[in-house]
Amino acid sequence: MDVTVPRFWLEIDKPHRLLVLHCQGFVASEVYREGLLEAVQVTRKEYLRNWVMDTKHMKVIRQVDQQWTMQSWFSQFKLLGVRRLGIVVSDDIFNQMAISGMVATLRPDFSGEVEYFQGYNSALFWAREGEGDFSDLGLFSV
């Protein structure tokens, strides 16, 4: 039995105004681009302000897709007003180099915060800070 595993999918956490992008394995150009464009549309429609990009298990991003991200996609992304972008670092060194290179190039034109994380839960916690209700985390106040 052949089970198809999604390579790129989105999750929305409305109470925390958060979009999570999950990327796994080698993502084909059309899937990568459609996914990023869909993420922009969903963010705009749902008024989301925080993102987590879970690239922990993603492989290298093609050079042509890196160029597309910087030249075409980023102009749309920066208009969204995203305040926090948490990136879960890939285990793949080539993916790490691609993402850090793109972020370094784009960071001067991005007004939000960008942080890198080794773990998914740490990135979620950081992205959720200051947004929504944290009662489900077991925190208390006096």
Automatic annotation (TrEMBL):
<protein>
    <recommendedName>
        <fullName>STAS/SEC14 domain-containing protein</fullName>
    </recommendedName>
</protein>
